[in-house]
């Protein structure tokens, strides 16, 4: 039995999320209207769809590889909890020196649906030691 993602069109022009190919991890998400993203700015993109993610799952919004590589677009934010019922609104950031235009109905992001593991917390006086310890960025030399 597969997981069912309920999707509501908020606008009749909206495209439902869909997998481009069998076996894809990310659902393609489409913009409702044409969008111009100025250099080094972010834009909230309307999709015209709302989703109902089942309990125990989360939607994670990710870049489209082609947009990132060819156009310098990246996603900002993008955690869709199972209790959220509003419009799917990708936030795109233009990393380049030129405006980027996305035509009406363009694929803008990918939404991955993944399971969530809720944890319990235990406050302690000390944490166990590890090889890495408190070393942060580039601590492995890679």
TrEMBL record:
<dbReference type="GO" id="GO:0000287">
    <property type="term" value="F:magnesium ion binding"/>
</dbReference>
<protein>
    <recommendedName>
        <fullName>dUTP diphosphatase</fullName>
        <ecNumber>3.6.1.23</ecNumber>
    </recommendedName>
</protein>
<keyword id="KW-0378">Hydrolase</keyword>
<dbReference type="Pfam" id="PF00692">
    <property type="entry name" value="dUTPase"/>
</dbReference>
<dbReference type="InterPro" id="IPR036157">
    <property type="entry name" value="dUTPase-like_sf"/>
</dbReference>
<dbReference type="InterPro" id="IPR029054">
    <property type="entry name" value="dUTPase-like"/>
</dbReference>
<dbReference type="GO" id="GO:0004170">
    <property type="term" value="F:dUTP diphosphatase activity"/>
</dbReference>
<dbReference type="InterPro" id="IPR008181">
    <property type="entry name" value="dUTPase"/>
</dbReference>
<dbReference type="GO" id="GO:0046081">
    <property type="term" value="P:dUTP catabolic process"/>
</dbReference>
<keyword id="KW-0546">Nucleotide metabolism</keyword>
<dbReference type="GO" id="GO:0006226">
    <property type="term" value="P:dUMP biosynthetic process"/>
</dbReference>
<dbReference type="InterPro" id="IPR033704">
    <property type="entry name" value="dUTPase_trimeric"/>
</dbReference>
<comment type="similarity">
    <text>Belongs to the dUTPase family.</text>
</comment>
<feature type="domain" description="dUTPase-like">
    <location>
        <begin position="14"/>
        <end position="141"/>
    </location>
</feature>
């Amino acid at each position: 039995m597969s997981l069912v993602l309920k999707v509501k069109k908020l606008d009749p022009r909206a495209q439902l999320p869909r997998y481009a190919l069998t076996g894809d991890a990310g659902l393609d998400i489409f913009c409702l209207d044409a969008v111009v993203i100025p250099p080094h700015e972010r834009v909230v993109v309307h999709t015209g769809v709302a989703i109902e993610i089942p309990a125990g799952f989360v939607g994670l919004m990710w870049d489209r590889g082609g947009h990132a590589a060819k156009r310098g677009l990246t996603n900002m934010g993008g955690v869709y909890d199972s209790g959220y019922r509003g419009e799917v609104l990708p936030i795109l950031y233009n990393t380049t020196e030129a405006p980027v235009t996305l035509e009406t109905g363009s694929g803008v992001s990918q939404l991955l649906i993944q399971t969530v593991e809720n944890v319990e917390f235990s406050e302690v006086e000390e944490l166990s030691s590890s090889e890495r310890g408190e070393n942060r960025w580039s601590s492995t030399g890679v």
